[in-house]
């Protein structure tokens, strides 16, 4: 469903017809060439847009290998933000078209976290993570990127060969929503500070994206990373505190209730599911050998034999438990109803590390 | 440029007469914003901008009957001043930190890595001369200050005089740079301080006016220029994107709150009250509300760097 119209023409039409300043959030899905700010809607979800007037450069579906997964298709869009004749930022979004019922298999992966990735939380059905990278903006990418790239060329816009990328992903039992924001590097912090600012921002973005998944983005305004580091600590928490204050001012809740809720709000953090097994295991590991030893002695009246029996039982239990833990993912796939495998997503460009060894450092002006 | 002048000087008298000390150059924008938060209760009352000394004089002036005076300032009273004020007014005086005033640097691709020492050597009217002693600052290119820096013109925009950011620039940044360059002359501290903080008046330095735009100035001044501004300018000018580190520390919520970013001063909320507990509580409550001191709040839009969320909540719970 790649749009046939030239993006260049659409950009010009869109810009001629609208002021450059950010307008109100778009109420419904935006079409190709349309200018949006605040929120972009796709497949029934809301995508938070950093400050600015974005243009929908391309929308498309990503073909997937033959799959029985009942999510329909993956819908993709590429939005761009101009600064004169320069591409200041690109935003690519991927999401499922039809809600599933049993969640997704490891949307954030289950590998050890690399330094530039943060896992916000992971439970049986919900996951949220953020990551930063540098992306080489070459010809590789999904159909939406091919269309957007052609339009950018036709419009005579200049695009840096490499951009900083902030990735955020949220998934729940029904849907996943993945966004990559590619940013032009701006003068300022050095490379390490820039990476930290970008990663902090990506985590903030993931929190906002979580609200977009449930269409509750109203009142969350996102600044760009450098400005966000100064002006926003946590946009989602700040919206919550403002709403608690509004409820107090209108008399819906008392000052005391507001104070209690504010305190709870700043202490609340998204938590991954807590595995109850360590507590149970610890208890078992202490009590079971003692019980076994007592039982064996009451039957055999022989200390050596009793210790041998208890130790053998303990050893056998440990072998089974260790095997169970090591192979749980494989066992779980057999015992637990299967979740939907995450689609194989194609993204814009390639990691800069593959293209040039200097990676992010290459972006420092 | 929206400067944070009020942090040094504002006073609100709700139930007493107007401040007796002379008001100086009040900022209409800021006063409007504060009046929006705390409207004056009596005809004589209202937000008034005062210089640092006049603030305490007005705050601690004798009064008849109930009194409620509220001030936002980066210059809190010392313990002696506090006790004198309480004794003179027979009122209670509370002092709480509600945020920070902060000086931020923005620049182009060729802006140098900034330190207190480099800013002192670029900005001060007189600097240590190569032949010994002090001499007029004639450096016009960054390269002249450090051969490792690019050979491009020095262009610096400094905050409007009298603002909290100007105070931070002179008293914190330039003085620290002066100490690093020249040591301390404890025998004549006032002279030494003046020598350290007097700004040069040539083309290298531009003093910002209220209402001027730092981003527009940066565009005109070229890629080696550096604009020193307050957070109010950042809030008002979306083009200001990535603040430059100072002494290797990037400004942000954590570095400002922890004090590792040194070009910042706490902003104190002073409330002096006698027999008006309810009104005092209400005034303090409005001034510590999320819509006032939170990110994006009325005071934050005028240059107040917000405390961390947990600290704001704790402040309101006190």
Explain the layout of strands and helices.
The complex is a heterodimer of chains A (365) and B (318).
Chain A: H1 7-17, E1 35-36, E2 39-42, E3 45-48, E4 54-62, E5 74-83, E6 86-96, E7 104-105, E8 117-122, E9 127-136, H2 143-154, E10 162-171, E11 176-183, H3 191-213, H4 225-231, H5 235-249, H6 255-267, H7 277-300, H8 303-326, H9 328-335, E12 340-341, E13 350-351, H10 352-355
Parallel strand pairs in A: 7-12
Antiparallel strand pairs in A: 1-4, 2-3, 4-5, 5-6, 6-11, 8-9, 9-10, 9-13, 10-11
Chain B: H1 6-9, E1 10-13, H2 28-37, E2 46-49, H3 52-59, E3 67-73, H4 79-89, E4 92-102, E5 104-107, H5 116-123, E6 126-128, E7 134-136, H6 142-145, E8 156-158, H7 164-182, H8 189-197, E9 205-207, H9 214-221, E10 226-229, H10 231-236, H11 253-258, E11 264-274, H12 277-287, H13 290-293, H14 298-301, E12 305-306, H15 309-317
Parallel strand pairs in B: 8-9, 8-10
Antiparallel strand pairs in B: 1-2, 1-3, 3-11, 4-11, 4-12, 5-10, 6-7
Radius of gyration computed on alpha carbons of chain A: 26 Å
| Main sheet record of chain B | 6 strands, antiparallel
What is the subunit organization of this protein? heterodimer
Residue windows where pLDDT falls under 50 for at least 5 positions of chain A: 1-28, 355-365
Low-confidence stretches of chain B: 1-6, 14-31, 39-44
């Amino acid at each position: 469903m790649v749009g046939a119209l030239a993006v260049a023409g659409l950009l010009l039409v869109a810009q001629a017809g609208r002021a450059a300043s950010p307008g109100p959030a778009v109420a419904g899905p935006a079409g190709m060439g349309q200018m949006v700010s605040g929120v972009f809607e796709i497949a029934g979800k809301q995508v938070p847009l950093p400050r600015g007037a974005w243009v929908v450069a391309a929308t498309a579906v990503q073909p997937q290998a033959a799959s029985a997964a009942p999510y329909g298709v993956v819908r993709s869009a590429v939005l761009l933000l101009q600064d004169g004749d320069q591409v200041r930022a690109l935003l690519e979004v991927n999401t499922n078209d039809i809600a599933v019922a049993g969640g997704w298999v490891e949307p954030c992966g289950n590998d050890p976290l690399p330094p530039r990735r943060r896992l916000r939380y992971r439970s049986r059905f919900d996951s949220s993570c953020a990551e930063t990278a540098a992306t080489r903006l070459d010809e590789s990418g999904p159909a939406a990127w091919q269309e957007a790239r052609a339009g950018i060329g036709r419009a005579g816009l200049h695009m840096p060969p490499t951009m900083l990328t902030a990735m955020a992903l949220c998934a729940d039992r029904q849907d996943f929503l993945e966004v990559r924001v590619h940013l032009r590097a701006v003068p300022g912090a050095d490379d390490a500070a820039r990476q930290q600012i970008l990663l902090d921002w990506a985590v903030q973005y993931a929190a906002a994206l979580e609200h977009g998944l449930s269409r509750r983005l109203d009142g969350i305004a996102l600044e760009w990373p450098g400005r966000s580091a100064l002006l926003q600590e946590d946009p989602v928490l700040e919206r919550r505190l403002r709403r608690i204050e509004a409820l107090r001012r209108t008399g819906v809740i008392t000052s005391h209730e507001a104070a209690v809720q504010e305190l709870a709000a700043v202490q609340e953090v998204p938590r991954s599911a807590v595995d109850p097994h360590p507590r149970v295991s610890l208890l078992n590991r202490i009590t079971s050998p003692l019980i076994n030893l007592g039982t064996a002695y009451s039957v055999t009246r022989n200390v050596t034999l009793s210790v041998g029996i208890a130790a053998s039982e303990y050893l056998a239990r440990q072998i089974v438990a260790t095997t169970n833990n090591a192979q749980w993912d494989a066992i779980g796939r057999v015992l637990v109803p299967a979740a939907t495998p995450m689609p194989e997503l194609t993204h814009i460009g390639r990691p800069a590390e593959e293209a040039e060894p200097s990676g992010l450092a290459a972006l420092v002006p | 440029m929206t400067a944070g002048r009020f942090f040094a000087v504002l006073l609100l008298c709700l139930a007493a007469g107007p401040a007796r000390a002379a008001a100086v150059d009040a900022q209409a924008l800021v006063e409007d914003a504060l009046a929006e938060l705390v409207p004056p209760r009596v005809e004589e009352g209202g937000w008034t901008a005062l210089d640092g000394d006049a603030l305490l004089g007005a705050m601690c002036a004798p009064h008849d009957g109930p009194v409620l005076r509220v001030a936002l300032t980066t210059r809190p009273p010392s313990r002696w001043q506090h006790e004198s004020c309480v004794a003179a007014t027979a009122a209670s005086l509370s002092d709480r930190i509600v945020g920070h005033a902060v000086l931020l640097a923005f620049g182009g691709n060729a802006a140098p890595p900034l330190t207190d020492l480099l800013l002192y050597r670029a900005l001060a009217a007189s600097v240590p001369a190569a032949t010994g002693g002090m001499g007029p600052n004639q450096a016009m290119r960054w390269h002249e200050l450090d051969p490792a820096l690019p050979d491009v013109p020095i262009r610096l925009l400094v905050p409007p005089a009298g603002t909290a950011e100007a105070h931070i620039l002179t008293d914190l940044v330039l003085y620290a740079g002066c100490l690093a360059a020249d040591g301390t002359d404890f025998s004549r501290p006032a002279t030494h301080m003046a020598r350290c903080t007097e700004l040069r008046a040539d083309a290298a330095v531009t003093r910002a006016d209220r209402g001027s735009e730092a981003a527009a100035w940066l565009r005109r001044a070229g890629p080696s220029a550096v604009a020193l501004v307050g957070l109010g300018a950042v809030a008002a000018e979306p083009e200001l994107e990535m603040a430059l580190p100072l002494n290797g520390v990037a400004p942000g919520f954590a570095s400002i709150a922890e004090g590792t970013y040194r070009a910042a001063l706490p902003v104190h909320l002073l409330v002096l009250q006698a027999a008006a507990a309810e009104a005092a509580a209400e005034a303090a409550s409005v001034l510590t509300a999320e819509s006032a001191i939170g990110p994006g709040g009325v005071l934050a839009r005028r240059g107040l760097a917000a405390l961390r969320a947990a600290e704001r909540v704790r402040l309101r719970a006190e």
